[in-house]
Amino acid sequence: MTCCSATSPQLGRTRSGDLTYVRTWNGFVYLAFVLDCYSRMIVGWQLARHMRAELVVDALEMANGLRRPAEGLIAHSDRGSQYCSVTYTERLDEFGIAPSVGSKGDAYDNAMAESWVATYKSELVDGRTFPSYEHAEHETLSWIGFYNNERLHESLGDVPPVEYEDANFRLIDNYKTGNITNQSNREPSLQQTQD
Prior knowledge:
This protein is of the alpha/beta class. It has 5 helices and 6 strands. It has one domain: Nucleotidyltransferase, domain 5 (2-Layer Sandwich). It has helices at 53-66, 86-95, 111-125, 133-149, 161-177, and strands spanning 14-24, 27-36, 42-48, 74-77, 98-101, 129-130. Strands 1, 2, 3, 4, 5 and 6 form a 6-stranded mixed sheet that branches. Helix 1 (53-66) packs parallel to helix 2. The two termini are 17 Å apart.
């Protein structure tokens, strides 16, 4: 299972996680994030001065606090030690989330998360060293807000993730309440192009 599998992910059914780092004058700051594969929205994140499993668990906790996991939710990641840790996998189990890890040595397996890291690094970090942890945190959280609410995504029809989700939730709600019909009497097809 990959977040970017051949068939389009379903709304709210697959999340991908990864972590990255930024430099500060006092050392590295690590960012763990959870991305909804359907809308590309960052639904959970956490920054810390360490890379322990608690970092990715905190991002998972945030994602699940903001959005209750749908039944059948899959959490995809690479094979990093944080994502294979007992702490993280037990927390997934407690939430009823199925874990999915990439194949060993396959850089494309978590491509959507890796693509997000590349965007974050090129648009925000761009070789900078932040003066402090707090500065890196403030800049990162501000940029995530921009990314989710304002940044246009070609793969989403040139709308931000929040707009894409709103439009598709309305489409599903209208279908379920009978306000629109699908000629084949199936769930609406909400296809998107892949990155």
